[in-house]
Specification:
The protein is an alpha/beta fold. It is 32% helix and 22% strand. Strands 1, 2, 3, 4, 5, 6, 17, 18 and 19 form a 9-stranded mixed beta sheet that branches. It has an 8-stranded parallel beta sheet with strand order 7-10-11-12-13-14-15-16. The protein starts with a strand and ends in a 24-residue tail after the last strand.
Length: 467
């Protein structure tokens, strides 16, 4: 049985175009667009008509960096796949790419199976996986080939967290060489974790235990050094590289230099680095613990370089690195020792709104908003044009967005399963009104109408930006 929806009266915004158009949705896909007021648009009939007059009609967001239920520091991220994807939908995101974790001594397959089991039947929106590679050996390298064939086409490695996720330069080089052959994309957490651990030990010995020291020991220079090293290793391997959660202006400079040389090097930043700073980490009474994440928040002067990088395309993607831990009982594990504070912030619900605020503030254009939040992450991770655009044949992941509605971000009103908001009290202009996921209403005029299990696992092709 066919189901049809027509969205009329809105301004359709994609990464490349803005047009006043009607959108016809049929059987979960975009069937057609037609300029508003034309005979073609007026002739469409459907069971459901959505009036988007005065609103934007945009593709559902693609958040390519989330950590639902991630084990970290003796606890787990507080959002499950059910609560986290529901919150994502409330924020206008209709696809997440989460990270399955290989534990040391175990296979990639075991990690992937475990994460598939966590997510299966739980998600309100569509999802895919990257693979965290913690243990590079001959078996792992062979498994990487198999995963690429199956649609898990990106692999994350860590230059940080010795003893947990850390890979040394030799392991990184081997994985990069493999990805150069199999078409996979290496994603890098670029911080010099060996050096950081020395600085952590020295800070604690001096009695510097407050959350703000988390930012002071994880120095911008050590992010820049690791970014430079990752780029050179990728160059030796002849492999592409995607650097996650770039926070420091010196790291942006390394990416820009590599891209000027024509290398396949890409960079992602996150809303927390664009809107928050070390001022938050320094909040009194241990409140700064709410803002502990890695890479850490930087002094405000780094923000200009990040915005410029997004405008010049030296940074291509804004993801959230959504990894929430409650202040009570989780962040508090680090009272008296900042190194024991679980690393991560909530944000999957806030990204689209914060980036729209950036449009209002003049940092980026409307089309660039859609590009960095929807289209580019979909292309980067092999989901385009199924995801990330409004075009015939694409999945009908569509958001009706009210650009004039005002809201105040708060833990009292958000839907993430965490007891604080990183953006508490922040006033923003623009709000999600209605969300369709593959043609089904998930949010209908600010009411959740979705369900756990609607979201389906989505295999990915390889990165669509590679020469």
């Amino acid at each position: 049985m066919s189901s049809r929806t027509v969205i009329r009266g809105g301004l359709v915004i994609t990464a490349s175009d803005e047009l006043h158009a009607a959108v016809l949705v049929e059987d979960g896909r975009i069937a057609a667009l037609a300029a508003s007021g034309t005979p073609a648009a007026e002739a469409w009939t459907a069971e459901r008509t959505i009036d988007a007059t005065g609103k934007y009609v945009i593709p559902g967001g693609v958040d390519a960096h989330t950590h639902m239920e991630l084990p970290f520091g003796g606890t787990f991220a507080s959002d499950s796949f059910e609560t986290g994807t529901r919150a994502a939908a409330w924020g206008g995101t209709t696809t997440i790419v989460d990270f399955a974790v290989q534990s040391v001594g175990h296979s990639l397959r075991e990690g992937l199976d475990a994460w598939n089991a966590k997510a299966d039947g739980k998600c309100a929106i569509d999802y895919a996986f990257h693979m965290i590679v913690s243990d590079v050996n001959q078996d792992t390298l062979k498994e990487m080939d198999l995963l690429v064939e199956e649609g898990v086409t990106s692999f994350k490695q860590f230059m940080a967290y010795p003893g947990v996720f850390y890979s040394d330069d030799g392991q990184i080089l081997r994985a990069m060489q493999r990805s150069a052959e199999n078409g996979g994309l290496i994603m890098m957490h670029a911080e010099n974790g060996i050096a950081i651990d020395v600085l952590v030990e020295q800070a604690l010995a001096r009695g510097e235990t407050d959350p703000r020291y988390h930012g002071e020991v994880r120095k911008a220079l050590l992010e820049a050094e690791a970014t430079h090293r990752a780029i050179k290793l990728a160059q030796v391997a002849g492999a592409p590289l995607y650097v996650v959660h770039v926070s420091a202006q010196q790291a942006v400079a390394e990416l820009a230099r590599a891209r000027d040389e024509g290398l396949n090097v890409f960079g992602e930043t996150c809303p927390q680095y664009l809107f928050l700073s070390t001022d938050n980490l320094a909040e009194p009474d241990f409140e700064g613990a709410k803002y502990v994440c890695s890479t850490p928040l930087r002094p405000k002067e780094h923000q200009a370089a990040l915005w410029r990088g997004l405008r010049t395309n030296d940074l291509q993607v804004v993801s959230t690195d959504h990894c929430p831990f409650c202040f009570v009982g989780q962040k508090e594990l680090g009272r008296g020792d900042f190194s024991k504070i679980p690393n991560g912030l909530p944000g999957v619900e806030n990204r689209m709104d914060l980036l729209h605020q950036a449009v209002v503030d003049g940092h980026i254009t409307r089309r660039r908003w859609i590009e960095i939040a929807c289209a580019t992450p979909a292309r980067m991770f092999g989901l385009y044009p199924k995801k990330g655009t409004i075009a015939p044949g694409a999945d009908a992941d569509v958001v009706i967005y009210d650009p004039h509605a005002e809201q105040v971000m708060s833990a009292e009103t958000h839907h993430m399963n965490v007891d604080y908001s990183a953006y508490e009290g922040r006033r923003t202009t623009g709000r999600v009104e209605t969300v369709l996921s593959r043609g089904e209403l998930v949010i209908n005029e600010r009411e959740f109408t979705g369900r756990a299990g609607h979201g389906v696992y989505t295999p990915r092709s390889t990165c669509q930006y590679l020469n």
